[in-house]
Amino acid sequence: MEIFLVVVQLLIVFGALWLGSRYGSLALGAISGIGLALLVFGFGMKPGTPPTDVIYIIIAAITCAGMMQASGGMDWLIQLTEKLLRRNPEMITFLAPLSTFLLTVLVGTGHVVYTLMPIICDISLKKGIRPERPCAVASIASQMGIMASPISAAVVAFVSISNMNGFDVTIPQVLMVSLPACLIGLLAASLCSFKRGKDLDKDPDFQARLKDPEQYNYIYGHSATTLDKEIPLKSKSAVYVFAASLLLIVMFAIFPQLLPSWNGEQLKMNIVIQIVMLVAAALMIIISGAKPKEAVQGPVWQSGMAAVVSIYGIAWMADTFLGHYMSQLESTLGGLVGAYPWMISIVFFVVSILINSQGAVVVAMLPLAYQLGIPGPVLLGVLPTIYGYFFIPTYPSDVATVNFDRSGTTRIGKYLLNHSFMMPGLVSVGVATLVAYLLTMLIY
Fold this sequence. Notes:
By secondary structure, the chain is an all-alpha fold. Helix content is about 70%, strand content about 0%. It is globular, with a radius of gyration of 22 Å.
């Protein structure tokens, strides 16, 4: 009977995750609330603890990034990126993913690349390069950057939860591993994509489409660009403010002795990040002319707040379920993960496929990993495996990339899993994990 109850409760958890992912956005967190309610009121489980510290940091970071977008600073970053890509069109398969990766690293969310995707496709078509090659890996890169951003929910949550569990790691120390690992992973994926598929002049499907005048005009009759847009100095100042705030956070992380302390207790980095991000957002309003109303209507702020609700609901439900069965999990899985601690990477990857959020994976599963006795350096080494939601191509950036590619070469296959993002996703995550694991073994 007890096993039957566990199975039913587990089905409720996974059912809530599956149903929430089908609706997407805020629904993931809200429907997780249904699962939480069933566990608490239906099965009498004690409610877990929602990850409020992580949520506060995310709110501060997306408020700052949203203000930069509202000020026009994001447009300047996209314009600078486009200039780089158009100067070197023959290297688009390498430069496009590098560009989307760095934009995500800077802003902390992968939702800033939608303006860039049509430009990548346009440059590819004009150079005669199959757009699938740069577009697919660029979409993957936009999500890989989350693991290398000093203000992303995933990195901040990893540091906060690790510190609470005895692994005293800082944001710069995480980036020392994740940044080179993700870059090497993306380089490997770009190399694999360089000659991927048939060239456009040898692709019979593409050539058949060109024979239709309407299709020809749709593919070649339009040009996507941001170069005709004038960016005022006020907008550029928002980027300088944002960059300065990131440098300040990194400086405090490297030199914690600069932080104030009270009764021997030093100011924690999660509070530092919140203060610095809020001050930066305020300066963008005062100096850069960012309008708060436009910020909350922008995609960065809206997608970020959707992520907050998702993490809130998912992590609370997961903490309730796992906390209830923690002693059984420790006795059942303790020996296995003790002998093969890297196997937690499989759990991270599978959970990521289900919930489409790297931050939520960290908040929901990292405490369990520490409870099972997995060392912090091992968990840092397998950090890239928190990105697995490319596996089923329903994530907004992947869907948008398919729609932006006017050539039709970036596609979701007939059998769902044979899509354009599978190969670069598996290569990127696989190589990045191997590199990160080796780096942590060398450092720790």
